[in-house]
Amino acid sequence: MSKKNGTKQDVNLISLIERYGNEDKCRAYLEELRWPNGVACPRCGSTSISRVLERDQFDCNSCRYQFSVTSGTIFHDSHLPLWKWLATMYLMIESKKGISANQVKRTIGVSYKTAWYLCHRVRNAMTETRPKLLREVVEVDETYVGGKTKGFGHGFKGNKTIVVGATQRGGEARLQVVDDNGRKTLHQFIRENTAPNTEVIYTDDWPAYRGIDDKDTRHETVNHSAEEWVRGDVHTNTVEGVWSLLKRSIVGSYHKISVKHLDSYLDELEWRYNNRENPYLFRDTLRKLIQSENLPYRGLTNG
């Protein structure tokens, strides 16, 4: 097992090659994850199944539907070998700062267009559809994402996108692109992502955060404008650590991210961060891929 953040992982690069280095091994593993209690027909649910070995398919003895382990999954219409899917997924979850499509292109030997589409499909599967609410001690902060603009000073933010984040100490993070950092927007984000009985919310001294406390939840701040960063347990260092990961991934790996796809990159960062102590991250990410809906190329490039 490899170690990530002190947690032993069930897969490392060597074991990845040994276990899933060809199509048959990949199909066998997908079958195990998709149908842990035995193959079932995706159309009628019957478990009375015959194998069609020469075509890597199954034949349902009840409704006569023929299907494969990839039928109805994100892999179904892909001409890319399964081992390249698994290798790309491994590289994305193992790289703390993410991995660019150009690097994937060079590593698995595909075109840039294929690598870019592949990374976005994996990234799309990392989205949490029903994330649990943060509770206990929560930190909230915003950051600006975007490069420099010629002719404007250091503080110019007209070309930047605002991202707001919340982290539960010792727990998970929630990240989201927002239109502004006003009171209404920030309060709505906090309500949607924190439990009503959250013990305390720590923020900086930005005025828009005022009023988020109630009878169940305290609100305490650190005065960054007065160079106050920590006061006892009061700080926003955890969420700022997430911002550090985000900025380092943009500068060091992606170099440039479009506003249109920024939320997808945030989902990827969120997934890695929230699973930092999960020893079965490879398996659980692959399960998400099996269960996720397909993402058409046109849907990524339109608009």
Summary of the model, kept short:
The protein is of the alpha+beta class and 303 residues long. It has helices at 13-20, 23-34, 82-94, 101-108, 112-125, 183-193, 237-254, 262-274, 281-291, 297-301, and strands spanning 2-4, 7-9, 49-52, 57-60, 66-67, 137-145, 161-168, 173-178, 200-204, 218-222. 37% of the residues lie in helices and 16% in strands.
Topology:
Elements: E1 2-4, E2 7-9, H1 13-20, H2 23-34, E3 49-52, E4 57-60, E5 66-67, H3 82-94, H4 101-108, H5 112-125, E6 137-145, E7 161-168, E8 173-178, H6 183-193, E9 200-204, E10 218-222, H7 237-254, H8 262-274, H9 281-291, H10 297-301
Parallel strand pairs: 6-9, 9-10
Antiparallel strand pairs: 1-2, 3-4, 4-5, 6-7, 7-8
Helix pairs in contact: 3-9, 4-5
Would you give an account of this structure?
- The structure is a single chain.
- With 303 residues, the chain is an alpha+beta fold.
- It has a domain at 137-257: Nucleotidyltransferase, domain 5 (2-Layer Sandwich).
- It is 37% helix and 16% strand.
- It has 10 helices and 10 strands.
- The protein has helices at 13-20, 23-34, 82-94, 101-108, 112-125, 183-193, 237-254, 262-274, 281-291, 297-301; strands at 2-4, 7-9, 49-52, 57-60, 66-67, 137-145, 161-168, 173-178, 200-204, 218-222.
- A 5-stranded mixed beta sheet has the order 8-7-6-9-10, with helices on both faces. Strands 3-4-5 form a 3-stranded antiparallel beta sheet, with no helix packed on it. A two-stranded antiparallel ribbon has the order 1-2.
- A hairpin with a 4-residue loop joins strand 3 (49-52) and strand 4.
- Helix 3 crosses helix 9 (281-291) and helix 4 packs across helix 5 (112-125).
- 27% of the residues are buried.
- The model has no long low-confidence stretch (mean pLDDT 90).
